[in-house]
Design goal:
Strand order of the largest sheet of chain B: 6-7-8-3-9-10
Helix content of chain B: 25-40%
Order of helices and strands of chain B: EEEHEEHEHHHEHEHEEHHEE
Number of helices of chain B: 9
Strand content of chain A: under 5%
Radius of gyration of chain A: 21 Å
Largest sheet of chain B: 6 strands, mixed
Strand order of the largest sheet of chain A: 1-2
Shape of chain A: globular
Largest interface: A-B, 28 and 38 residues
Number of helices of chain A: 14
Strand content of chain B: 25-35%
CATH architecture of chain A: Orthogonal Bundle
CATH superfamily of chain A: ABC transporter involved in vitamin B12 uptake, BtuC
Structural class of chain A: mainly alpha
Oligomer: heterodimer
Distance between the termini of chain B: 51 Å
Radius of gyration of chain B: 19 Å
Order of helices and strands of chain A: EEHHHHHHHHHHHHHH
Chain lengths: ~350, ~260
């Protein structure tokens, strides 16, 4: 692969040209898609109308753009980037293209707690009581995601962390969580559970600035951390003895990167629900586009943001005025991709 | 002593493999550890390279406890090539060798001109410059082993531990790798410790042999002092004649056995 050294005094990096190309193209595509999603909806607007509405608080469309479409699109893009980044980290550490935050218990832990909250306290978005009213759905999801991750991590730890063991334990725990979730859905009141189902599918419906904020903050803090950890991530692909011999504290490096991945996935899930397949597919798409040996972090994030933005645009327009949860669209697009991936690795 | 094991107790979990072993590695020598399967020679090498934490005793690097020195600092003076190392699929030789620069890099200094020249030099020394862009899995066993040694060289350490660097190689490639090891020793006076299975090659290429059995050092010294008929019986339970190698004059082991072709 073509790499160029970039040197400034004592500072130096290796820049992979394809990585830069994919990230830049992805970002440009993202801007286009976001612009398109500003225009499309119940009220169609031209570019000029969108611009006027954005900057003029007195404009009739101001509320639609600034309170409905922009925060929704931003939540989607940020959640996509966070999920993809999380998936890229986990796939690198597990040395397995089928690993994702779902394997770490984050997604299903969040789902279990949200469903439990909804079933226990009466209503997902309306009048609430008890745990749900105190915490709200996003906080409950965040808590559930972190608890799920702690359970998987705790069970997988054996005097160190082995990527393969982590995946196996994760699959087991995920199966348990999934069944608890379905059990809760069957015992719950039908009105509550149908609302819970929308959340479980992953939806960007009605997302406002309060959903943008946490993901933006998480990304602002964790992207730099993840990027400084790229070197360890590269080294961790080798056997543990080789990595230790190179002066990497393997368990500490692995734990730090997994923590970053868990936080990213948990915050993303708290904002938009468990959107399927993005964390799994985006890093693998980025990997193939950049032709690198392991999922590239920044390119994955760009691909993830594009994927969700495009999927939400489809979810909003495909059967308008009926709106699909974005997670349904990503799952419909992602499932064939997953099969394709397994098919290829079989050969 | 560059590297020293003092009363080390080594094992995995409840299983103790080495108990109370002492060993010193003198600077500028090639030391080869020999012994039957399961005698603890690889375990000892892993402990010397701080890949395995001793359950008792201590390992000293230049007189300091190795586990008290930051692991990255250790990696700047001590390179370890583990047994049968594995690399990610599709990795090129140049990428592998570049990985050896890890201890010298930080997130803001990832590819300095020092890194570049160290990698080029390591590739040249191991005769891999022309194969730099080839994926590792396309190379022959001998070339691949040279690539791994090249990575350890790029690390720029003057102390190298090699765990069975010749396993899975045919005789010609074993000789090729050991000639390279000797050359590294000559060129920069590197201190090298390795584990080898082939006794004749061990005798030929080492300054010092260490013979182990059941986690203990039975004998250590120059090859002709260590590799005797009595030692082969005691350590390997092998009846053999030891004659001078007609090429190098080092001890040559000829097993007695019972089978003869008349």
């Amino acid at each position: 692969m073509t790499t160029v050294p970039l040197r400034l005094g004592r500072l130096s990096w290796q820049v992979r040209l394809r990585g830069v190309a994919v990230t830049v193209t992805g970002s440009a595509l993202l801007v286009l898609l976001m612009a398109l999603s500003m225009r499309i909806g119940d009220i169609e607007m031209t570019v000029a109308q969108v611009l006027a509405a954005t900057f003029d608080p007195a404009d009739a469309g101001h509320f639609v753009i600034m309170e409905l479409r922009l925060p929704r699109a931003l939540t989607g893009a940020l959640v996509g980037a966070a999920l993809a980044l999380s998936g890229a980290i986990i796939q690198s550490i597990a040395r397995n293209p089928l690993a994702s935050p779902e394997i770490l218990g984050v997604t299903n832990g969040a789902s279990v707690l949200v469903v439990a909250g909804v079933v226990a306290s009466g209503s997902a978005y309306g009048g609430t009581s008890g745990l749900l009213a105190t915490l709200g759905v996003p906080a409950l999801a965040l808590l559930g995601g972190l608890i799920g991750a702690v359970i998987v991590y705790g069970l997988a730890w054996r005097r160190g962390l082995d990527g393969y063991r982590l995946v196996l334990v994760g699959i087991g725990v995920t199966a348990v969580f999934t069944n608890v979730k379905f059990w809760l859905l069957t015992v719950g009141d039908v009105n509550d559970t149908s609302r819970a189902m929308v959340w479980i599918s992953g939806s960007l419906h009605g997302r406002g600035w309060e959903h943008v904020q946490p993901v933006a903050i998480a990304l602002a803090l964790l992207v730099p951390l993840a990027l400084t950890g790229t070197r360890s991530l590269n080294a961790l692909r080798f056997g543990d003895d080789t990595v230790t011999a190179l002066g990497v504290r393997t368990n500490r490096a692995r734990a730090a990167m997994i923590l970053a991945a868990v936080l990213l996935a948990a915050v993303a899930t708290a904002s938009a629900g468990p959107i399927a397949f993005v964390a799994l597919a985006a890093p693998q798409i980025a990997l193939r586009l950049t032709r690198s040996a392991q999922p590239p972090l920044l390119s994955s994030a760009a691909v993830g943001a594009v994927l969700i933005t495009a999927a939400d645009l489809l979810a909003r327009t495909l059967f308008a005025p009926v709106e699909l949860p974005v997670g349904v669209v990503t799952a419909v697009l992602g499932a064939p991709y997953l099969i394709h991936l397994i098919w290829r690795s079989r050969k | 002593m560059r590297l020293q094991a003092a009363a080390v107790k080594l094992g995995y979990g409840d299983r103790t493999i080495v108990d109370g072993l002492d060993l010193g590695v003198e600077p500028g020598t090639v030391t080869t550890i020999i012994g039957p399967n399961g005698c603890g020679k690889s375990t000892l090498l892993r402990a010397l390279g701080r890949l395995l934490k001793p359950q008792g005793g201590e390992v000293l690097l230049d007189g300091k406890r190795i586990d008290r020195i930051p692991t990255r600092e250790v990696a700047k003076v001590l390179g370890v090539l583990p047994q049968a190392p594995t690399a990610p699929e599709g990795l090129t030789v140049a990428d592998l060798v570049a990985r050896g620069r890890h201890p010298h890099q930080t997130w803001y200094r990832q590819w300095s001109s020092d890194d570049e020249s160290a990698v080029a030099e390591a590739l040249a020394m191991t005769g891999l410059a022309d194969l730099a862009e080839r994926p590792l899995d396309e190379l022959s066993g001998g070339q691949r082993q040279r690539a791994w040694i090249s990575m350890a060289l790029a690390q720029g350490t003057d102390l190298l531990l090699l765990d069975e660097p010749t396993t899975f190689l045919d005789l010609a490639h074993q000789v090729e790798v050991l000639e390279l090891v000797r050359q590294l020793h000559h060129a920069a006076g590197r201190t090298i410790v390795m584990v080898l299975h082939d006794l004749n090659l061990a005798a030929r290429y080492a300054d010092r042999l260490v013979a182990m059995r059941d986690g203990r050092v039975i004998s250590a010294g120059a090859p002709h002092e260590v590799l005797t008929e009595e030692l082969l019986r005691e350590v390997f339970e092998l009846d053999a004649k030891v004659i001078p190698d007609p090429v190098a004059g080092t001890p040559l082991v000829v097993p007695i056995g019972t089978h003869r072709r008349s």
